[in-house]
UniProtKB/TrEMBL annotation:
Keywords: Membrane, Transmembrane, Transmembrane helix. This is DUF2062 domain-containing protein. The keyword Electron transport does not apply. Residues 29-174 form the DUF2062 domain. It comes from Rubritalea tangerina. The chain crosses the membrane at residues 47-71, 153-179. It comes from the Bacteria. The keyword Metal-binding does not apply. InterPro entries: DUF2062.
Amino acid sequence: MKRKYLRMVRRTYRYLRHPRIRKIKWLTPFTQAIFNKRYWKPCRATVANGLSIGLFCAMLPIPLQMLVAALGCLRARGNVPVALAACWITNPLTQLPIMVIQQQFGHWLHTSVGIPRPPVIDKFEFPVEAPHIDFMGRHLIDAGTHVVNIGDFVLGFLSAGICLSLIAYPLVWAVSMFLPNRGKSMENWDPSI
C-alpha cells in the first residue's frame, strides 16, 4: 500500500511540474507554493491536517471542492494528496444522500439540541417532491412532499464538516500507531524521483 501511494504521489507531482502547466502565468503563485516537498511527504501531522481539510471541504455543497482543499492545505501545511482523496467522499453518486443526511442532521441539531439556525436564512423554506429514498439499507426519506429549510441545511453541512474534520486527527494518530515508523516523517523521501 505504501508503494502504491508513493507511486501515485510521484506521478501526480511530475504531472504538475510539466512545463505546459508551468507556463500558465496565473497559476505561478500556486504552483511555486504547492511544490514544497513538505506538502507531499506522508507523515502523521501533515496527513492529519490534509484529511481534516479534505473532509471539511467534502461536506461543503460547492463545486471545485478539491481546489479549495488544495489551497487550504497550502495554508495549513497539510498533505495535498490526502486532502484531494478525502474530497471524493461526496462524489456524484453519494452527493444527494449526503445532502439529505446533512439537512436531517441540521434539523435534529435545531430541534433536539437547540442550536440556532443562521438568522439570515432561517426563514427560507421550499417544498420538495421526493421519492422514497433508501441508502445502504437505511431509510432516508418517505415519498411525498417535504419542506426543506435552508437554515437546517446550512447548519447541517457546517456541523458535519466540523465534526468530521475533528475526528480526522485521532483517527490518523490511531492508525499511525500500527505503522512501522509510527507515522513519523520520512526525511529522505523525494516525490520528484
